[in-house]
Amino acid sequence: MTGARTARVTRGDTAILRWTSDAPVELHLHGYDLAVKIAPGAVAEMKVEARTTGRFPIEAHGKNGGGHSHKPLFFLEVYPE
Amino acid sequence: MTATHASARIRALGALFLLAAPLDALAHGFAIRYELPIPLGFFLAGAGATVALTFILLAGLARPEPGRPLARVSPQVPLPALGRMLAHPLVAAALQALSIFIFLLVLATALFGDTNPFKNISTTMVWLIWWVGMMLINTFIGDVWSTLNPWNVLFGIAEKFACRFGLRLSLKRPYPEPLGLWPALVLFLAFAWLEIISGEGEDVRILGGLIIAYSVVTWSAMAVFGRETWLAHGEAFSVVFSTFSRFAPFTRTSHGTLVLRPPGSGLLVREPVSWSAAAMVLVLLSSVTFDGFIATPAWTALYDDFTALGQRLPGIGGWFNFHTLATALFLIFPVIFGAVLLACSELTAELTHRLSAGEIARYFVLTLLPIAIAYHVAHYLVFFLQTGQYIIPAISDPFGFGWNLFGTAGYKPNIDVIGARFAWYTGVIAIVAGHVIAVHLAHRMAEYLFGSTRRTLASQYPMLVLMVGYTMLSLWIIAQPAVS
Q1: Of B2, B10, B27, the CB nearest to A17
Q2: CB under 8 Å to B56, separation ≥6 — which residues?
Q3: Are A55 and B29 a contacting pair at CB < 8 A?
Q4: Of A52, B55, B223, B365, which residue is 20 to 30 A from A19 by alpha carbon distance?
Q5: For residue A13, what are the CA distances in angstroms to A32, A81, B38?
Q6: Cα–Cα nearest to B127, from B194, B209, B215, B36
């Protein structure tokens, strides 16, 4: 996968992100400090109450649980009202 | 956008992900930025204000006093009482003791503390409190670093101690004048490369090792050339911080009197700065800009094209990686800045027939600094207020061993401390203000050099175009969504 996707919400929204993957992986939403584990075949859900403005990267941990990969996979942008 | 609409869209995007991201074992993530790019409206307002104010200031130049002496333009208010208070031996001793304590604490925690950069005080202390915080103090208040510099303090103490035994710690070899500030420049380039490109600065053990290495280099050089000579020519951070402190309102005259002056007036010079000093300023300007550029989607696109090219070339394709491109660009930036400055100086030289392009460049180069300072503030404010909060738990548990000396070890930084809109306004206003100050300083410099009305006005256009362009670049960068 190349490049990163960005989703934009307004402060006060509740964003529900649903993920699928073909390999077991853990996603980490920085800033909000939320994590979700994705098993192959299943759909994992990440619920974010967007109370803080900013541009927050989501990065992946591999199955070893080691450090982050260098490139964020996704950005959640929370804009002020 | 309603919540359900947002979630439906995100769900669709999320389902596209086939996660095969390669594992990178770097403990990366200390320097994550959460600020939003400035919206288009803010960018246009900032750009418009920049151009409009430039014209207004130019009109105000219409009747300058010919050959206005710089001393009249830059008033200085002496503050003898405050100056004596700050120079009191007890004050100096207290500040220096604090500095040594922090220096040794950072070294100890870097070498022996927890390797998680969020749990170890050394990362926050070095990259936020010192590199951003001390820089801001030196720029907006006064050259505090020259007093606090731990390498200076520790070598000074060692010298006094050796003196008691009749020993001289320094050979005091004469410093070869042609070397100028080049040693400081090279050391600073190495530091900036480390900070911006390598990312190894977040590894606490490497940070500790680098501090030791730099201490060895600094003290060896001091032993050869003398403490003060090296501080003035080769100690990278003293040279960098003292350059920024030319902007600061508080300074000491050559007689040691503390004075208050208009911010930025210290950037006006009576003689052109040396070539190495000019190069140092260009390196400062360009590394600040490069730091911002390397987080933009434009850089990512360039990098993607570069690696794609490398994949088509057998054998040497392995060289087409991040480090190669980033380092090359990092070194080319100051050359480009210098070339543009010289081109504008050449135009000014031809319009005024009084000085050479090289001299003009070396008179005006410092007047560009407010633009870089403003961008630095706009770029780092949010980061400093958000990630800088890690100092609060860190002082209770500097090594990350689970201590709680002051009860703050459980503190979690609140990223809500600064709202997006406030950050946007501050950033754009800072950048426009920096531009206005730079233009004002350039006018004063031109009056000093070229005297007569028509010549001064004519001489200004190339430099103003340069400044407007540089400010637009700064605005453009903060309008880009940060891509890691």
Answers
A1: B10
A2: none
A3: no
A4: A52
A5: 14, 10, 21
A6: B194
pLDDT tens profile B51-95 = 999 999 888 765 556 556 665 567 889 999 999 998 899 999 999
Distance between alpha carbon A77 and the CA centroid of its chain, in Å?
11
Neighbours of B335 (CB within 10 A): 12
| Whole-angstrom distance, CA of residue B333 vs CA of residue B324 | 14
B24-37, pLDDT tens digit by residue? 223 346 778 888 99
Distance from A36 to chain B by nearest Cα, in Å? 13
At residue B392's C-alpha, the angle toward residues B390 and B394, to 5°, is 70
| A62 chain-B contacts, CB cut-off 8 A | 21, 23
ipTM of the complex: 0.85
Asked if B71 has any chain A CB less than 8 Å from its own CB, the reply is no
Half-sphere exposure at residue B214, Cβ-oriented, CA atoms within 13 angstroms: 23
Q: Using CB atoms and an 8 Å cut-off, which of residues 414-473 of chain B contact chain A?
A: 415-416, 419-421
Q: Is A25 helix (H, G, I), strand (E, B) or coil?
A: strand
**B32:A31 CB<8 A:** yes
Tokens of B108: 């100890």
Rounded (5°) CA angle B379-B474-B40: 90
DSSP string, B177-206: GGGTTHHHHHHHHHHHHIIIII-GGG-HHH
Min Cα separation B103/chain A (Å): 29
- This prediction's pTM: 0.88
Chain B nearest-CA residue for A14: B3
Q: Which residues of B fall within a CB distance of 8 Å from A64?
A: 23
Task: Please tell me if residue A45 touches chain B, with a CB cutoff of 8 Å.
Answer: no
Asked if B73 and B444 count as a contact pair (C-beta separation under 8 A), the reply is yes
Tokens 């933009």 label which residue?
B296
Contacts 24+ apart (CB under 8 A), B401-407: B401/B113, B401/B114
* Residues in B touching A20 (Cβ below 8 Å): 14-15, 17
Residue identified by tokens 């032993």 is B223
Q: What are phi and psi of A15, to 5 degrees?
A: -100, 130
Rounded to 5 degrees, what are φ and ψ at A4?
-120, 150
- b/e string for B154-167 if b means 16 or more Cβ within 10 A? bbbebbeeeeeeee
Of the ranges A11-25, B216-230, B291-305, B357-371, which one carries the lowest mean pLDDT score? A11-25
Residues of A in contact with B482 (CB under 8 A): 55
